[in-house]
Amino acid sequence: MPASTDLLSRADLDFLLHDWLRVGDLTERPRFAEHSRSTFDEILDLCADLAQDRFAPHNRHSDADEPRLVQGRVRLHPEIRPALDALAETGFLGVTADHRVGGLALPRVVHLACAAWFAAANVSTYGYAMLTVANAHLLCAHGSPEQIARFVTPMFEGRFHGTMCLSEPQAGSSLADTMTRAHPADDGTYRITGTKMWISGGDHELGENIVHLVLARTGAGESGVRGLSLFIVPKFLVGDDGSIGERNDVSLVGLNHKMGFRGTVNTVLSFGDGTHRPGGSAGAVGYLVGAPGEGLAQMFHMMNAVRLEVGVCAAALGYTAYLKSLAYARTRPQGRRPDAKAAHLPQVPLVEHADIRRMLLAQKSYAEGALGLTLYCARLLDDRETAPEHAERDRAALLLDILTPIAKSWPAQWCLHGTSLAIQVHGGYGYTRDYDVEQHYRDSRLNPIHEGTHGIQAIDLLGRKTSIHDGAGLQVLDEEIRRAVAAGSRLGPETSAHAADLDLARARLLEVTKLLHAHPEPVTRLGNASIYLEAAGHIVLAWIWLEQLIALGDRDDAFARGKRAAARYFRSYELPGVAPRLDLLASLDRTTVDLDPSWL
Amino acid sequence: MPASTDLLSRADLDFLLHDWLRVGDLTERPRFAEHSRSTFDEILDLCADLAQDRFAPHNRHSDADEPRLVQGRVRLHPEIRPALDALAETGFLGVTADHRVGGLALPRVVHLACAAWFAAANVSTYGYAMLTVANAHLLCAHGSPEQIARFVTPMFEGRFHGTMCLSEPQAGSSLADTMTRAHPADDGTYRITGTKMWISGGDHELGENIVHLVLARTGAGESGVRGLSLFIVPKFLVGDDGSIGERNDVSLVGLNHKMGFRGTVNTVLSFGDGTHRPGGSAGAVGYLVGAPGEGLAQMFHMMNAVRLEVGVCAAALGYTAYLKSLAYARTRPQGRRPDAKAAHLPQVPLVEHADIRRMLLAQKSYAEGALGLTLYCARLLDDRETAPEHAERDRAALLLDILTPIAKSWPAQWCLHGTSLAIQVHGGYGYTRDYDVEQHYRDSRLNPIHEGTHGIQAIDLLGRKTSIHDGAGLQVLDEEIRRAVAAGSRLGPETSAHAADLDLARARLLEVTKLLHAHPEPVTRLGNASIYLEAAGHIVLAWIWLEQLIALGDRDDAFARGKRAAARYFRSYELPGVAPRLDLLASLDRTTVDLDPSWL
Questions:
Q1: Environment class of residue A85 by beta-carbon count within 10 Å: exposed (0-12), middle (13-18) or buried (19+)?
Q2: Cβ contact, residue pair A583, B599, below 8 Å
Q3: Cα(B578)–Cα(B576) distance, rounded to whole angstroms?
Q4: Is B403 a domain residue?
Q5: Cα B414 from Cα B579, distance rounded (Å)
Q6: Same domain, yes or no, for A125 and A215?
Q7: Residue A296, SS3?
Q8: Range of B165's domain?
Q9: DSSP A102
Q10: pTM
Q11: Residues B117 and B187 both lie in one domain
């Protein structure tokens, strides 16, 4: 087997990208006209090799040798920077950007497939690149040409890195309570003061500079989230000629020491506390992005991109853990089958046991389903921007909007569970740091927390995404599922049975959604939003699996049989769990609402 | 609040032990006649204080400073030994043993409640004591008076420690493949050779000696598990006068480096490799326990005790994580309720949010349910030995037998999930090593693996415990549930609704069990054993919650209302998940059975 087999399945990526998502067709659109299937494949090959050769080798090293403060400076594991430098040298960082900013206009869906390789190899090191790219893209969309030239170009070149600074110590998920302030200075810039928490990549010496994107409140603005504006606050000021200037007043307060994801330094940053005094004045120098009061909307540009990246990173961790536990199960002899237990018989490999197969199929259904969903969403990003018809673009935008909370939360929840099953397949060995799955599990536990917790995604889905635009998002999703159901029911018995089960769940979800939306009382309506998110998530994944079954067509090789087994697992073992969740939602259960906390 | 509130709830223990399990009534039996409710309470107080003062303070220290090899010797974190010495000084180690071996004949159920305190405080340090006690009790049951005097007494005094040596590198769960051999020597002892893996407490310097209980194959025996005998293999030989003699030929091969549970050293041990040559001869000196070929049956004495201990440790970790996340949720302001979102309003504590309450109630239902189940099983241990009527003892034995795989696996699975929810309640902070819940989660991940994996418990339950003695165990369990259902249905609407839902699930479980047992083909019959274990587990826990509801009687204070809310959570959110699992089992689904591993 090739060396990269352990990280991800290239055969599956080819299937998802080409047989299902038909990314080759994108080259018929003007934006992607210079590309071809073979350039897509070459980029995937390049990234797979780079992930294997430069990212995977230090994954465990940078976990064991976590970031630390040495004389006030962040000391990262020394293998991180060369990997990121090698990545930047390929031009990968700007690969989806417009030609006008030095990009290659590669489809987002191909980029996300590459991201999966890096995340499978080393999610912590990839985190630096991911944040930098997302930051740069926000500025491409909302920054001025001068801001793009000064900050974005060096980020795409890998010389500058980027962060997103939203949370504060007193307000994690509650952005309405942001206290960081921006005061206008005489020269058109702002002076930023405040403390930001949970800032990944907040300080390090991986490049020449760090571009912080900071949500802050201008004095004049409204309270709550509407008063927030977005600012570029570089670690070092940048001259008109692009030269690195004075140290800005951004200082490192401390590091957070995490269970996993340790290679990505996570920081508390202080802005404008007087540690540094650029130009002799107080406050960190910040540059307003776009117009005042638009900070949150702009930040959502980056947040939505990052949420999808969290989804693909979660999927990649679940995927690589699956492949590693599969390899282990194939080679490790242990026990005998219940129909051939005699002790004189040789032990069989773990994979011969039904319960091990169940755990492998569960992992496969989670990982391949999650990867499929996130790639589908990335293809929607492309369609939103480049589909030939206006209506098609709007439709892609609606669908992406409603799928984003699921594409973030479902892989986070279920691929974490998948990594736990990967440990279980390894038995005691999986619990030791001698095997990779131990780290994948710890790394994965972050995914339901960062970039909007599970509960935040749930409220976003039930409280907003299913109802805005008169429920147009849910309607488009429902239509897509029904289209697949119709196509699937014309196929063989397995696929049509899958379609039939999915259709029942789909109809029930619509019904329950209407019932909830009709409820006048917001606390009750949203009280079980997380259960709703989980029910909707399983239905969406059953649909993604139906799409994959349909894309298989008549194919009947081992690959296709494996896909069908995973889809059947999902239909038989997972989808039936949706009904009791929807029943609970339909009952408008008030157990949590009526609880008096003093009873706990 | 008293300092020990954070670890466990004494109010709940009082409720479970006294109001529900009526442990005071045990003092009417001759064995416990010298005790009274007040002596039970005093011992609980003493253990709670000791856990708080001596075990909890170094829980994080011994996690960060894990065991390591220094010049061939195991170096443990220095706070571990004083804590264990303090525990031994209280006489706790032999507290349930007979007076004839220096014990206090305390009921097992009281002992297990004490164990919960120590595990909540520091499960890794408690692990040494737990193994020593279980080892000593096996020898009390099966060892000769001379063996008891030589090895058990020093263990109860805390001078010797004990291990159980079952697994080998090539055979983790598959004891039939044990290769360690025992050759009879001329003096009636044996010489042991082989390698044992995953040995907790396998080497250290916490006391004067370590008593290994080793499963090994005598040359004459049959193959498989029937050829296994049990041997005492001390680290140091012990003279007739109890003096510590020569080093036995047991040597440390290496340490396993684990995700959690780090304070408990886990080792690979080599027996009889010639590192040491006691008496100049080859092989480690071993003393046969009881008769040859009875090793596995004897070891099950210890394994069943340890499985129950794993259950209570899992429950304690889930419990303390629950209490810590509850304390955090009560004090941390974050966001606003959906019916009062205006940004000028102050933030509310996390506990005001429905989704946080859901996560707290889930944790409470898992932790208090799991603790209840394990204490119930410990009470069965007492009844099995001391109930006045012979029939009652038999009944307790049957019930304990069928409940043990559930009492081990259910707390392991669901309290692990509970610790994950405890992290989620903390948000990003919960993922950092600044908060205890991060460690509780890592520690908890071991519980579905050690002392028989989840899959092993599943096969034990479906393949053995539900069918032996013509299904008498299942019948007794069913009768107990029906008795509770009958009692519950005479009470208020909440309790009778709980009883009704439970009764339906109970009847369906019986039906599905019969269907599975009737299936001629063992691979299909047992293929979904893990799903069966999980379905049966949730039904048993719904019963345990019904028992608690009944025990509450008319009580209507905050404690009782909290219990009712947790029971209602379990009935509304958890129990309905049983039906699709039983449907899957009834369908005799062959997804895993028919899978060709080459498809994966």
A1: middle
A2: no
A3: 5
A4: no
A5: 18
A6: no
A7: helix
A8: 161-293
A9: T
A10: 0.97
A11: no
Query: Which tokens is B146 given?
Result: 């001379």
pLDDT of res. B445:
98
B252 touches B74 (CB < 8 A): yes
Q: Which two tokens stand for residue A425?
A: 């397949």
Nearest to B558 among A432, A573, A598 (CB): A598
Say how many CB pairs under 8 Å bridge A and B: 274
Q: Distance (Å, rounded) from C-alpha A223 to C-alpha B221?
A: 81
A441 lies within 8 A of chain B by CB: yes
Which of A132, A155, A178 terminates a domain? The answer is A155
Q: Summarize pLDDT for B287-340 with one digit per residue, the tens.
A: 999 999 999 999 988 899 999 999 999 999 999 999 999 999 999 999 888 888
Within this chain, do residues A550 and A459 fall inside the same structural domain, yes or no? yes
B94: tokens are 């032999």
| Spatial contact of B16 and B24, defined as CB atoms under 8 Å apart | no
Q: Which of A224, A258, A347 sits opposite B343 (nearest CB)?
A: A224
Between helix A529-552 and helix A493-518 the angle, nearest 10°, is: 150
Q: Where are the beta strands (DSSP E) in B235-314?
A: 236-238, 244-247, 250-255, 266-271, 284-288
* Same domain, residue pair A176 and A130: no
Q: What dihedral angle (degrees, nearest 10) is formed by the CA atoms of B481, B487, B489, B492?
A: -130
Cα distance from A443 to chain B (closest Cα, Å)? 10
Element (H, E) at A195: strand A190-200
Taking the Cβ of residue A467 and every Cβ of chain B, the question of whether any pair is shorter than 8 Å is answered with no
Question: What CATH number does residue B79 fall under?
Answer: 1.10.540.10
Mark yes or no for CB contact A259/B432 under 8 Å. Answer: yes
Q: Which residues of A touch B449 (CB under 8 A)?
A: 423-424, 427-428, 430-431
- Dihedral (C-alpha) B467, B472, B475, B480: value to the nearest 10 degrees? -130
Q: DSSP letter at B206?
A: S
Same domain, B466 and B574: yes
> What does R_g of chain B's alpha carbons equal in angstroms?
24
Cross-strand pairs, A183:
A191
pLDDT, tens digit (0-9, with 9 covering 90-100), for B140-197? 999 999 999 999 999 999 999 999 999 998 877 788 888 999 999 999 999 999 999 9
Q: How many structural domains compose chain A?
A: 3
Q: β-pairing, B228-234 with B190-200?
A: unpaired
User: The CATH number of the domain where A269 resides is what?
Assistant: 2.40.110.20
End of a domain among B276, B293, B310?
B293
Contact assignment for A597 to B357 by CB distance below 8 Å: yes
Contact flag A528-B592 (C-beta cutoff 8 Å): no
Asked if residue B129 and residue B61 are part of one domain, the reply reads yes
Closest CA–CA distance from residue B9 to any residue of chain A (Å): 11
Residue at B367: amino acid letter: A
User: Distance between CA atoms of B353 and B581, rounded to whole angstroms?
Assistant: 31
Residue of B167, B572, B598 lying closest to A591 (CB–CB): B572
pLDDT of the residue at A285? 97
Looking at residue A221, its pLDDT comes to 61
Closest by Cβ to A326, choosing from B344, B596, B600:
B600
A221 or B507, which is more confident: B507
Q: Given an 8 Å threshold on Cβ–Cβ distance, is B453 in contact with A531? A: no
For residue A241, the model assigns a pLDDT of 94
CA-nearest of A404, A193, A399, A352 to A282 is: A193
Q: Nearest-CA distance from B258 to chain A in Å?
A: 4
Considering the domain boundaries, does residue B526 fall inside one? yes
Is A355–B530 a contact, with Cβ atoms under 8 angstroms apart?
A: yes
Query: Torsion angle, CA of A33/A38/A40/A42, rounded to 10 degrees?
Result: -140
Residue A466 lies in a domain: yes
B303, A486 contact by CB (below 8 A): no
Inside any domain, residue A475:
yes
Does residue A86 share a domain with residue A46?
Answer: yes
The rounded distance, in Å, linking the Cα atoms of A470 and A452 is 24
Per-residue pLDDT at A220:
64
